[in-house]
Write a structure and sequence with these properties.
globular, Rossmann fold, about 375 residues, alpha/beta, 14 helices
């Protein structure tokens, strides 16, 4: 398995592999870029079919975190970690502590947070063996409610704000009453997004690999359950991918009937050219690393100067960033993902001196 010639390798600063036979831990950490600060990103646990699949995921996800933090104007770099295994079967405290020791060996180069397959409690277990974890402190959340550090509420709210901005730009609507939305994935973020949409008057269609999560959305939001093979091709206004990535591909894009794609999943495009494929079909794609930045914003403020009003305002600025991207895309006739990439690169490749001086403020605050 060659890292440097891997198609997803993008001049990553650091990639490391860890194996602990005693606990069964097999994990990879990838740090993409630290020009703005230490690399913060979620620790994902998933039963990858192959080691190559895990490497591909961690390389893509870590790169996305660099771009996400830059567009959210955070003094953070981009990193990610993956644990190979089924979180419902293989997760143990011993395994998580071993992961914590792995993270500690990196001396703050990478800071772990909650992600798909892990929870705040899991990160606290990791925290027994490393100080380089984030999103585990109790505080008053951006919504004024007590928070245990879980970034999902902020991620979901930011996705909701971004979806509103996309609907306003594409459909000319300031309200969501009667809007038809298909939500793929009703986990921590997808469920909360569905609740925001329901409260705003939207009509929902939902799919999740776990039946109980679909049932919950049906019962609480009056959502219509559908199969995984049809959720992306329904005749709706908006498709919101909120599960795993690479769901926007040749086949799914050809079958899309929605005119807006706005969801929280990372790396929704299977390949970069699918960005242009969506534009050619007249579909407004809301770049995932912009719309789902609410969680990383919340975690950043938790470890620095957490203030509920400041966090909420920062998360709501996602809508402004997206409108800038949409407007430039219309003006230049270029896809939204490409525009978002350029804006991000401007921010992490050409950092003002003042930014360089404060790049590691986040790490020291922890």
């Amino acid at each position: 398995m060659n890292v440097f010639s891997h198609p997803e390798f993008d001049n990553h600063e650091h990639v490391s592999f860890f194996c602990d036979p005693k606990t069964g831990l097999k994990a990879i950490v990838a740090v993409h870029n630290t020009s703005r600060g230490p690399a913060l990103g979620g620790c994902r646990m998933f039963p990858y079919a192959t080691d190559e699949e895990a490497l591909r995921d961690v390389l893509r996800l870590s790169r996305g975190m660099t771009y996400k933090s830059a567009l959210a104007n955070l003094d953070l770099g981009g990193g990610k970690s993956v644990i190979i295994g089924d979180p419902r079967k293989h997760k143990t405290d011993d395994l998580l502590e071993a992961m914590g020791r792995f993270v500690e060996q990196l001396n703050g180069l990478y800071i772990a947070a909650e992600d798909s397959g892990t929870s705040v409690e899991d990160l606290k277990v990791m925290g027994r063996c490393t100080k380089h974890v984030a999103g585990i402190s109790s505080h008053i959340g951006f919504d004024g409610k007590p928070s245990n550090g879980d970034p999902s509420p902020a991620t979901a709210y930011g996705t909701f704000v971004g979806l509103q901005a996309a609907v306003k730009h594409k459909l000319g609507r300031s309200d969501l009453e009667g809007l038809k939305v298909a939500v793929q994935g009703i986990g921590h973020v997808g469920y909360r997004l569905a609740r925001h949409l329901h409260e705003a008057g939207a009509k929902l269609w939902v799919y999740d690999i776990h039946q109980e999560q679909m049932d919950r959305a049906v019962e609480e939001f009056g959502a219509t359950p559908v199969g995984g093979d049809e959720i992306l091709s329904l005749p709706v206004d908006v498709v919101a991918p909120c599960a795993l990535g690479a769901v926007l591909n040749d086949q799914s894009i050809a079958n899309l009937k929605a005119t807006v794609v706005a969801g929280a999943a990372n790396n929704q495009l299977e390949h970069p050219h699918h960005d242009e494929a969506l534009m050619k079909r007249g579909i407004l794609y809301t770049p995932d690393f912009v719309i789902n930045a609410g969680g990383i914003i919340d975690v950043f403020h938790e470890r620095t100067d957490h203030d509920a009003d400041k966090v909420r305002a920062h998360v709501e600025s996602i809508g402004d960033t997206l409108e800038e991207i949409f407007t430039r895309s219309d003006r230049d006739g270029r896809p939204t993902g490409a525009i978002a990439n350029e804006l991000a690169e401007e921010r992490f490749e050409h950092i003002p001196a003042s930014k360089e001086q404060h790049a590691h403020r986040f790490a020291k605050a922890g």
